[in-house]
Amino acid sequence: MLTIFHNPRCSKSRQTLALIEENKAPVTIVEYLKTPLNKNEIQSLLTQLSKEPIEMMRTKETEFTEQNLKGANNEQLIEAMINTPKLIERPIVSDGTKAIIGRPPENVLSLLK
Length: 113
Description:
The protein is α+β, with helices and mostly antiparallel strands. It has helices spanning 11-22, 39-49, 62-66, 74-83, and strands spanning 2-6, 27-31, 92-94, 99-101. It has one domain: 3-Layer(aba) Sandwich (Glutaredoxin), CATH 3.40.30.10.
């Protein structure tokens, strides 16, 4: 079972979800802007992605600059993602063990094998 952390307003997120559905993979959709992730969920995704918090963030968002996050430590970045879910890169797809950022959407195909 896959889980997609999805923003339906994002074209890459929609394309990634379409790829999952085309491959008939069972999927749970989490609209993370409506249901924000908590600290444990973010840390779990970071582990599954094998990435640092900054690599899971949308650093070009206005909120990133407004919150003075450039140079912030990992704890501050995780807190920013909890408090401002818009800063989380999208989409993220997880199989519970491994996660992929769907940019480009074809990245998700590695989880469907």
